[in-house]
Amino acid sequence: MIGIDDVGTLTTVGTAIQQAISLGKFLKELGETEVIAAHFDANGERISGSSDIEIQRITMKGREDVWYFMVGEVPGYTFVRAPVIDSVAVELPATRQGEKNADANIWRWVSTRLPGVIYSGEDPPNLRVEFVVVGYRTEAVIKHLT
Hints:
Number of helices: 2
Radius of gyration: 17 Å
Helix content: 10-25%
Order of helices and strands: EEHEEEEEEEEH
Strand order of the largest sheet: 4-3-10-7
Number of strands: 10
Distance between the termini: 33 Å
Number of domains: 1
Strand content: 35-45%
Largest sheet: 4 strands, antiparallel
């Protein structure tokens, strides 16, 4: 979505980030839940926001261009994340060693693949993109909705 903010500056906001902003606003309106959020660079280093949110970066052995992120546990909180530029981002979850199914809490972003391009079968390299993480108390949302 492209829009003009109240000071007349052209802004571009991706769908994923719009959803994170909408979720944050909704949760704050509940008044019963504490919302925490932080902005991170493409390496998972905090740019701004809550120091309660920590990002772990997990690099694949032998592949400096492939890494995953995981949000550190904060008791009682559930986290959602969104790349700040999502138009070319595809999120891929990781599968923990010894598990059969992917874990939604461990992820990375890659770029969309070009049509007509044949890939070698290797994991595609990561997309370097800043991201936002929003955390909320799940119990408070359930209490409000029931």
